[in-house]
Amino acid sequence: AILVKDSMHLAECDTLPDVHAARARGDLELVDVRHHLILAHEESVAANAGSLNLFGVAGSPTFLRNSWSPMEGCLNLSDLQIYDPYSGYSKVLWIRHARAGDGQRFSTRYSVDKSGYFESNELQLDMDATSAAGKIQTVLTKEEFVSCLITNPLLSEGLRQMTTFDTSSQLRIDRPLSIELAIEDPMQESADEDFLDSMNVRR
Fold it and tell me: Does pTM top 0.85 for this prediction?
Protein backbone atom coordinates (compact mmCIF):
# COMPACT_ATOMS: atom_id res chain seq x y z
CA ALA A 1 0.00 0.00 0.00
CA ILE A 2 1.40 3.37 -1.02
CA LEU A 3 0.25 6.99 -0.96
CA VAL A 4 1.19 8.73 -4.21
CA LYS A 5 1.16 12.46 -4.87
CA ASP A 6 -1.04 13.10 -7.87
CA SER A 7 0.63 14.42 -11.01
CA MET A 8 0.37 14.13 -14.77
CA HIS A 9 2.80 11.18 -14.70
CA LEU A 10 0.49 9.17 -12.43
CA ALA A 11 -2.13 8.94 -15.19
CA GLU A 12 0.41 7.07 -17.31
CA CYS A 13 0.86 4.37 -14.63
CA ASP A 14 -1.43 1.35 -14.82
CA THR A 15 0.37 -0.94 -12.36
CA LEU A 16 2.51 -0.59 -9.25
CA PRO A 17 5.72 -1.48 -11.15
CA ASP A 18 4.96 1.49 -13.40
CA VAL A 19 4.61 3.69 -10.32
CA HIS A 20 7.91 2.54 -8.86
CA ALA A 21 9.63 3.00 -12.22
CA ALA A 22 8.30 6.56 -12.44
CA ARG A 23 9.51 7.19 -8.90
CA ALA A 24 12.96 5.89 -9.82
CA ARG A 25 13.02 8.44 -12.64
CA GLY A 26 12.03 11.19 -10.21
CA ASP A 27 8.62 11.76 -11.81
CA LEU A 28 6.52 10.70 -8.77
CA GLU A 29 6.58 11.12 -5.01
CA LEU A 30 5.18 8.41 -2.74
CA VAL A 31 5.30 7.02 0.80
CA ASP A 32 4.80 3.46 2.02
CA VAL A 33 1.67 3.14 4.22
CA ARG A 34 1.51 -0.65 4.40
CA HIS A 35 2.10 -0.72 8.15
CA HIS A 36 -0.79 1.69 8.77
CA LEU A 37 -3.15 -0.35 6.58
CA ILE A 38 -2.26 -3.57 8.43
CA LEU A 39 -3.10 -1.99 11.79
CA ALA A 40 -6.30 -0.51 10.38
CA HIS A 41 -7.29 -3.90 8.96
CA GLU A 42 -6.81 -5.62 12.32
CA GLU A 43 -9.01 -3.05 14.02
CA SER A 44 -11.56 -3.30 11.21
CA VAL A 45 -11.80 -7.08 11.64
CA ALA A 46 -12.34 -6.67 15.39
CA ALA A 47 -14.99 -3.97 14.88
CA ASN A 48 -16.95 -5.78 12.15
CA ALA A 49 -17.51 -9.24 13.64
CA GLY A 50 -14.56 -10.88 11.91
CA SER A 51 -15.22 -9.55 8.41
CA LEU A 52 -11.97 -9.57 6.43
CA ASN A 53 -13.06 -6.79 4.11
CA LEU A 54 -11.28 -3.52 4.75
CA PHE A 55 -13.30 -0.44 5.72
CA GLY A 56 -16.14 -2.64 7.03
CA VAL A 57 -19.61 -2.26 5.56
CA ALA A 58 -19.65 -0.48 2.24
CA GLY A 59 -20.47 3.21 2.59
CA SER A 60 -20.09 3.20 6.37
CA PRO A 61 -18.69 6.54 7.62
CA THR A 62 -16.97 4.85 10.57
CA PHE A 63 -15.36 1.47 10.13
CA LEU A 64 -12.98 1.88 13.08
CA ARG A 65 -14.11 1.98 16.66
CA ASN A 66 -12.29 5.23 17.40
CA SER A 67 -12.68 6.96 14.04
CA TRP A 68 -15.04 9.78 13.17
CA SER A 69 -15.59 11.48 9.87
CA PRO A 70 -17.75 14.59 9.30
CA MET A 71 -18.37 13.48 5.71
CA GLU A 72 -20.81 10.59 5.36
CA GLY A 73 -19.33 7.65 3.47
CA CYS A 74 -15.81 9.08 3.65
CA LEU A 75 -12.71 8.57 5.73
CA ASN A 76 -9.70 10.72 6.39
CA LEU A 77 -6.09 9.60 6.31
CA SER A 78 -5.90 10.56 9.97
CA ASP A 79 -8.51 7.86 10.70
CA LEU A 80 -5.90 5.37 9.50
CA GLN A 81 -3.19 7.09 11.56
CA ILE A 82 -1.50 8.12 8.29
CA TYR A 83 0.43 11.37 8.32
CA ASP A 84 -0.33 13.34 5.17
CA PRO A 85 3.01 14.42 3.70
CA TYR A 86 1.28 16.02 0.70
CA SER A 87 -1.24 18.25 2.45
CA GLY A 88 -2.91 20.62 0.04
CA TYR A 89 -2.39 18.30 -2.95
CA SER A 90 -4.53 15.57 -4.45
CA LYS A 91 -3.27 12.07 -3.74
CA VAL A 92 -3.97 8.44 -4.59
CA LEU A 93 -4.06 5.63 -2.04
CA TRP A 94 -2.96 2.55 -4.00
CA ILE A 95 -3.53 -0.86 -2.40
CA ARG A 96 -2.40 -4.15 -3.92
CA HIS A 97 -3.76 -7.26 -2.22
CA ALA A 98 -4.46 -10.96 -2.63
CA ARG A 99 -8.07 -12.02 -2.06
CA ALA A 100 -8.71 -14.73 0.52
CA GLY A 101 -10.36 -17.85 -0.87
CA ASP A 102 -8.76 -18.04 -4.30
CA GLY A 103 -5.57 -15.97 -3.96
CA GLN A 104 -6.42 -13.72 -6.89
CA ARG A 105 -4.48 -10.44 -6.85
CA PHE A 106 -6.04 -7.00 -7.27
CA SER A 107 -4.95 -3.38 -7.29
CA THR A 108 -7.37 -0.81 -5.91
CA ARG A 109 -6.97 2.95 -6.06
CA TYR A 110 -8.68 5.49 -3.81
CA SER A 111 -8.66 9.13 -4.84
CA VAL A 112 -7.76 11.31 -1.85
CA ASP A 113 -8.63 15.00 -1.92
CA LYS A 114 -6.47 17.87 -0.72
CA SER A 115 -7.85 17.60 2.81
CA GLY A 116 -7.09 13.88 3.06
CA TYR A 117 -10.66 12.59 2.61
CA PHE A 118 -11.54 9.64 0.38
CA GLU A 119 -14.64 7.52 -0.22
CA SER A 120 -14.58 4.52 2.09
CA ASN A 121 -15.80 1.97 -0.43
CA GLU A 122 -15.46 -1.54 0.94
CA LEU A 123 -12.26 -3.27 -0.13
CA GLN A 124 -13.10 -6.91 -0.89
CA LEU A 125 -10.31 -8.88 0.80
CA ASP A 126 -12.49 -11.99 1.14
CA MET A 127 -14.10 -13.90 -1.73
CA ASP A 128 -17.89 -13.69 -1.92
CA ALA A 129 -19.12 -17.26 -1.41
CA THR A 130 -22.54 -16.41 -2.87
CA SER A 131 -21.15 -15.31 -6.25
CA ALA A 132 -20.70 -17.64 -9.22
CA ALA A 133 -16.92 -17.67 -8.80
CA GLY A 134 -17.26 -18.34 -5.08
CA LYS A 135 -19.58 -21.27 -5.61
CA ILE A 136 -17.15 -22.84 -8.07
CA GLN A 137 -14.33 -22.57 -5.55
CA THR A 138 -16.38 -24.29 -2.83
CA VAL A 139 -17.70 -27.18 -4.96
CA LEU A 140 -15.76 -30.46 -5.04
CA THR A 141 -16.58 -32.92 -7.81
CA LYS A 142 -16.74 -36.67 -7.29
CA GLU A 143 -13.68 -37.24 -9.47
CA GLU A 144 -11.62 -34.70 -7.51
CA PHE A 145 -12.66 -36.25 -4.20
CA VAL A 146 -11.79 -39.80 -5.27
CA SER A 147 -8.47 -38.68 -6.76
CA CYS A 148 -7.46 -36.87 -3.56
CA LEU A 149 -8.57 -39.82 -1.46
CA ILE A 150 -6.59 -42.39 -3.43
CA THR A 151 -3.39 -40.35 -3.43
CA ASN A 152 -3.46 -40.17 0.38
CA PRO A 153 -2.22 -43.54 1.78
CA LEU A 154 -3.61 -42.86 5.24
CA LEU A 155 -7.16 -42.48 3.92
CA SER A 156 -7.09 -44.93 1.02
CA GLU A 157 -5.50 -47.92 2.79
CA GLY A 158 -8.59 -48.48 4.89
CA LEU A 159 -10.74 -48.62 1.77
CA ARG A 160 -8.38 -51.06 0.07
CA GLN A 161 -8.67 -53.50 2.97
CA MET A 162 -12.46 -53.50 2.89
CA THR A 163 -14.05 -56.58 1.30
CA THR A 164 -16.53 -56.45 -1.56
CA PHE A 165 -18.02 -59.87 -0.75
CA ASP A 166 -21.80 -59.85 -0.80
CA THR A 167 -22.90 -61.30 2.54
CA SER A 168 -26.57 -61.15 1.63
CA SER A 169 -26.24 -64.05 -0.82
CA GLN A 170 -27.41 -67.50 0.31
CA LEU A 171 -24.91 -69.36 -1.87
CA ARG A 172 -23.48 -72.44 -0.13
CA ILE A 173 -20.34 -74.29 -1.16
CA ASP A 174 -20.44 -77.94 -0.04
CA ARG A 175 -16.98 -78.80 -1.26
CA PRO A 176 -13.93 -76.71 -2.09
CA LEU A 177 -13.37 -75.55 -5.60
CA SER A 178 -10.85 -77.41 -7.73
CA ILE A 179 -8.37 -74.90 -9.05
CA GLU A 180 -5.43 -75.68 -11.29
CA LEU A 181 -2.49 -73.35 -10.91
CA ALA A 182 0.36 -73.05 -13.40
CA ILE A 183 3.39 -70.82 -12.90
CA GLU A 184 4.83 -69.52 -16.13
CA ASP A 185 8.17 -67.87 -16.68
CA PRO A 186 8.09 -66.38 -20.18
CA MET A 187 11.28 -64.38 -19.62
CA GLN A 188 13.19 -67.45 -18.37
CA GLU A 189 14.30 -65.54 -15.31
CA SER A 190 14.30 -68.58 -13.05
CA ALA A 191 17.20 -70.15 -14.96
CA ASP A 192 19.21 -66.96 -14.64
CA GLU A 193 18.47 -66.80 -10.93
CA ASP A 194 19.62 -70.42 -10.45
CA PHE A 195 22.87 -69.65 -12.31
CA LEU A 196 23.50 -66.53 -10.25
CA ASP A 197 22.82 -68.45 -7.04
CA SER A 198 25.37 -71.12 -8.02
CA MET A 199 27.97 -68.46 -8.87
CA ASN A 200 27.48 -66.54 -5.64
CA VAL A 201 30.78 -66.71 -3.75
CA ARG A 202 29.05 -66.30 -0.43
CA ARG A 203 27.27 -69.66 -0.76
Answer: no
Alpha helices in 32-123 (DSSP H): 34-47
pLDDT in tens, 137-151: 777 788 888 888 888
| CA proximity to 113, closest of 81, 71, 58 | 71
Please answer whether residues 25 and 49 qualify as being in contact, where contact means their C-beta atoms are separated by less than 8 angstroms.
Answer: no
Q: Rounded distance, CA 155 to CA 149, Å?
A: 6
Contact 11, 26 (CB under 8 A): no
Cβ–Cβ under 8 Å, residues 101 and 127: yes
What DSSP string runs through 26-56? Answer: TS--EEE-HHHHHHHHHHHHHHTTT--SBTS
CA 138 to CA 197: how far, in whole Å? 59
Q: How far apart are CA 163 and CA 93, in angstroms?
A: 63
**Strand, coil or helix: 117:** strand
Model pLDDT, residue 59: 41
Buried b (16+ CB within 10 A) or exposed e, 22-40: bbeeeebbbbebeebbeeb
